[in-house]
Design a protein that fits this description.
This is unspecific monooxygenase. The chain has helices at residues 2-30, 55-66, 85-92, 106-111, 123-139, 147-164, 173-188, 198-215, 217-224, 226-229, 236-260, 269-279, 290-321, 323-336, 352-365, 397-401, 444-461; strands at 69-74, 77-82, 101-102, 374-375, 380-382, 385-387, 392-395, 462-465, 479-480, 484-485, 492-495. By secondary structure, the chain is of the alpha+beta class. The chain has a single domain (84-495), classed as Orthogonal Bundle (Cytochrome p450), CATH 1.10.630. The strands form 4 sheets. It has a 5-stranded mixed sheet with strand order 1-2-7-4-3.
């Protein structure tokens, strides 16, 4: 009986395998001539051809065989992959509207209630939320302190914290997270939090774990098999619970704002959103409601904390590895800013080497190597291939940031990639750490301002020192999935 049972099971597996193969093949045919790509296996798709620890490198490797535009199957679902600056530019810039959809990403959808936030939404909902968010961030303050002033203030608080270390080595992770997060908190919640605030520290810890979760194997598998993963135990459930804790905090803040709102004197993003909700309360199709507000704030709070703080942390590790670059930044700071005033954003145009070094840090660390998935909003013929409406598209930003046609030494850290022969700052079209086109990061302007002001303020006051020889410093990411996470390290801040 055991032999018969095993044989029957094997027969069933073979039949299912054949049926799924036929179904998958028919899916491909019914959608027209998709770009070529590796042959997928039933259920698994092309997963076995991807290195889970370095997915972006696997995708770039496949492009060497199948070209800069090819089809990959993530499980049963076809995904069009774009590798190289030319392919990504043609999609996101030349066909910006068609590629403006947000691609299928179940792990992210789980956090923003199925597409009710700024990052994961689509169509008219996305257009309205993005337009409102950009306008509010741009015009924030209504005559009060500018965002630049808030960053300058927070940078000084950070300097004071580093001064307390008295030159002893420390892990900069949460120092930077607290400072960067306080900037977006002041914009969204109308206040900054003290660095020892326990609730604030808990939120930052949860955000950090969620960001790591996005890049983990669990997060990647969840994106491919969400229905299965939802039913089995694993650390992903703790991450979703962490997201709910953060949303509860946001909801509590919204309630406090409602009780103290003055329509004639909006204090922050929450006040502005509440006022917009009141204006559209009688419109049944409005996109401005409680769920949209909480999810949009969650997106701004999360993205405005982790990506910038991780970039700064990675950037300082690079400077420890390249002290000559740090020294040239010191010289430029002393020449342009001096020691008697705080750096301001106007200084950036007079500091070409520092500006180039920051751009190169962003290019080299490649913080979100796969970008956030897009999808096409209508049927499209792209480079003689047919891409059906709704198809998910991976724009591999890593292939842009390390495109040899755009950067002379793509695998080396070299600020010269953004300098001309006269030492002046030179733009490079391959600079796309924030993506490009309609879906370019809504917080790009704020992030770039933060990177410049935080880094120059730190280096105005300190020299960075590593407890290990610079030859031993390894710049390899500690984890590489959705994000390239910097390795853990310690350093000392030596007063200048």
């Amino acid at each position: 009986m055991e032999i018969i049972g095993a044989s029957t099971l094997l027969l069933i597996v073979c039949i299912v395998f054949i049926v799924l193969s036929i179904t998958q093949a028919q899916k491909g045919k019914s959608k027209g001539k998709l770009p070529p790509g590796p042959t997928p296996l039933p259920i698994l798709g092309n997963l076995l051809q991807l290195n889970g620890k370095e997915v972006h490198k696997s995708l770039i490797k496949l492009s060497e065989k199948y070209g800069p535009v090819y089809t990959l199957h993530m499980g049963m679902d076809p995904v069009v992959v774009l590798c190289s600056y030319d392919a990504v530019k043609e999609a996101l810039i030349d066909n910006a509207e068609v590629f403006s959809g947000r691609g299928y990403m179940p792990f992210m959808d789980k956090f923003n209630s199925g597409g009710h936030g700024l990052v994961g939404s689509n169509g008219e909902r996305w257009k309205q939320l993005r337009r409102f968010s950009l306008m509010t961030l741009r015009n924030f303050g209504m005559g009060k302190r500018s965002i630049e002033q808030r960053i300058q203030e927070e940078a000084q608080f950070l300097v004071e914290e580093f001064q307390k270390s008295k030159g002893q080595q420390l892990d900069p992770t949460f120092y930077l997270s607290k400072a960067v997060s306080n900037v977006i908190c002041s914009v969204v919640f109308g206040k900054r939090f003290k660095y020892e605030d326990k609730e604030f520290l808990t939120l930052l810890d949860l955000l950090h774990k969620i960001f790591i979760g996005f890049s983990s194997a669990w997060g990647q598998i969840y994106n491919i098999y969400p229905n299965v993963m939802q039913k089995i135990p694993g650390p992903h459930h703790k991450l979703f619970a962490a997201g709910e804790v953060i949303k509860e905090f946001i909801s509590k803040r919204v309630k406090m704002h409602r009780e103290t709102l003055d329509p004639n004197d909006p204090r922050d993003f929450i006040d502005c959103f509440i006022m917009r909700m009141q204006q559209e309360k009688d419109i049944s199709t409005t996109e401005f409601h409680e769920e949209a507000m909480v999810n949009t704030i969650f997106d701004l709070f999360g993205a405005g904390t982790e990506t910038v703080s991780s970039t700064l942390r990675y950037g300082m590790l690079i400077l420890l590895k390249h002290p000559d670059v740090e020294e040239r930044i010191h010289q430029e700071i002393d020449k342009v800013i001096g020691r008697d005033r705080a750096p301001c954003i106007e200084d950036r145009s007079h500091m070409p080497y520092t500006d180039a070094a920051i751009h190169e840090i962003q290019r080299f660390i490649d913080i979100v190597p796969l970008g956030v998935p897009h999808k096409v909003t209508q049927d499209l013929t792209f480079r003689d291939y047919f891409i059906p409406k709704g198809t998910t598209v991976y724009t591999v930003l890593s292939s842009v940031l390390r495109d040899p046609k755009q950067f002379k030494c793509p695998d080396q850290f070299n600020p010269g990639h953004f300098l001309d022969d006269k030492g002046k700052f030179r733009r490079n079209d391959g600079y796309m750490p924030f993506s490009s086109g309609k879906r370019i990061c809504a917080g790009e302007g704020l992030a770039r301002m933060e990177l410049f002001l935080f880094l120059t303020t730190i280096l105005q006051n300190f020299t960075l020192r590593s407890p290990v020889d610079r030859e031993e410093i390894d710049l390899t990411p500690s984890m590489s999935g959705f994000g390239n996470l910097p390795p853990n390290y310690e350093l000392a801040f030596i007063p200048r």
